[in-house]
Write a structure and sequence with these properties.
Length: 223
């Protein structure tokens, strides 16, 4: 048991080190693009929300197609190489595009954006709330994956379905609220209500976990 725990820790550390750099770069693409996508501060919620929707929709397609298309027809190793090639291709396209972008305009754009940033105590509280909410969301996703794996199995297809459903919910929620955010007179209160609603719904569904196998059986027999 001790050797297994040590091997698991080493494997976790090695995978974490390998994934840290590429995932950091992938996560940084959205904030960087958000700097350029919105030209007016009063429409930043709509513009950045729409950008996040398309970004997340791409993740939905990737999570679903990687398991049900690429791995099925090309295999795991070829899928990894295809994914790596696509990421390198995207990086080259972005590099060449911004390389031809006038330095003066890029500098002015950065200055204008920096002038609009004013982080006070309230802003920091909201940012911390975003971070904590994201941490809870990831934990919630892992919990659902563990629970549903008892029924769907631990295959890559089961993980792909759960991940796709989770990300699709993020995408749909983003596109709906991004179109209405400019009409919201108190977005902070709305954010708080949504967080409380998520927490309450998570607690309310917990007692029904034991009935999931029976629901799954009914679906299998009837559908």
């Amino acid at each position: 048991t001790e050797s297994y725990n040590q091997a698991s820790i080493y494997r976790f550390l090695i995978c974490g080190v390998i994934l840290l750099f590429p995932t950091s770069c992938m996560g940084a693409t959205l904030p960087v693009l958000s700097k350029c996508v919105s030209q007016e501060s009063k429409f930043v919620g709509r513009d950045v929300g729409t950008l996040y929707f398309f970004n997340t929709l791409g993740a939905v397609f990737g999570a679903l197609s990687s398991a049900f298309l690429f791995m099925r027809f090309f295999g795991v190793l070829a899928t990894i190489w295809i994914s790596a090639a696509l990421n390198i291709g995207i990086a080259l396209v972005i590099y060449l595009f911004f390389r031809s972008y006038p330095n003066r305009q890029a500098s002015n754009l950065a200055d204008n954006r920096n002038e609009e940033i004013n982080l006070n105590t309230g802003s920091m509280t909201v940012l911390l709330a975003f971070g904590f909410s994201g941490l809870c969301a990831l934990t919630y996703q892992v919990a659902w994956n563990r629970i549903l794996s008892l029924l769907l199995g631990s295959s890559i297809y089961a993980f792909s379905l759960i991940l796709t459903t989770f990300i699709l919910g993020l995408a749909l929620g983003t596109i709906i609220f991004s179109q209405k955010i400019n009409q919201n007179k108190n977005p902070l209160r709305t954010f708080g209500i949504l967080q409380v609603g998520i927490g309450i719904s998570a607690l309310m569904i917990t007692p029904y976990f034991g009935n999931i196998p029976f629901v799954n059986r009914w679906i299998y027999q009837n559908w």
